[in-house]
Specification:
Blueprint: H1 2-29, E1 36-42, E2 57-63, E3 116-121, E4 137-144, E5 152-165, E6 184-189, H2 191-203, E7 205-211, E8 225-226, H3 234-242, H4 259-266, H5 274-283
Antiparallel strand pairs: 1-2, 3-6, 4-5, 4-7, 5-6, 5-8
Amino acid sequence: MDRQKILMIFGAAWVSAALLTWIFISKTHGPKMEATRKILAVTRDLPLGTRIKKTDLKLVEIREKDVPRGALSKDTEVLDRALLFPVGANEPLTNMKLTSVGGADGVPSTIEAGMRAISVPVNDTSGVAGLIQPNSRVDVLFTRPGSMTEAVTSVILQNIKVLAIGRLVSVGQTLDPKATKMPVATLLVSPEDAQKLELAKNQGKISLTLRNPLDQTSNPDMAPVNSDVLDPMISARLARARRGRTTNVRGKVPNLDDPRVWQELTGEKKIKTDEELETALRNKKKEPEKPRLVVYVIR
């Protein structure tokens, strides 16, 4: 009988020890660990339009159930994208807060401080047959229209960066084929050059010349080119005609209004027959006659 009591006491002590040990272990380890995930967050406060750099990023570990929608975990998914909204320090980054990769929505953030973006119309001729791409380097030519003695071409800007062609802002970017194609090139220039370029657009024709991106040279002393490079003698012939030193077969000063005389001086196609001369005279624009009487009506 005493032996049974001893065994019962020993068993109760063993169960009590096991129960106390389980309670102690459960209290020590705490609740079961929840799943976590590492995502990207910013290291400091960033304003709207900031272009993300590697120094602006860090990895933070949060519970899986607290991960925001569209959270990013790789640097390659974030670098060089711009913020669409201001973010605070330690705030996780999501796709909704960043511009699209290579999209036009992030172009304003690529414009350097103190620079401006301005567009000029181009076509296959003035735009080097479509070979100009975003980030290309070009020179800008301006041609002032007029007669052979008035027309002139000059280089007004050199080594200018092309920001975009139409809505194409990066090489290899895929655009909506239904979108309207705008034959324009957007250039990155200083405010002073933007004024010069806008004036040139309204006074004549703009063309672009493509240059090697490694060629950083510029020649500020480039002189404008006129018709003398095409016909070196035209200026001399016209000057002589204006001074009256060029005479016709009868020894008289030629009439520059005569199509035959003008074509002889400029080297244009000759008028051979009288019928061609009559046609040229008829097609020549006549000055409107001055009114004999002008009446002002005041109400």
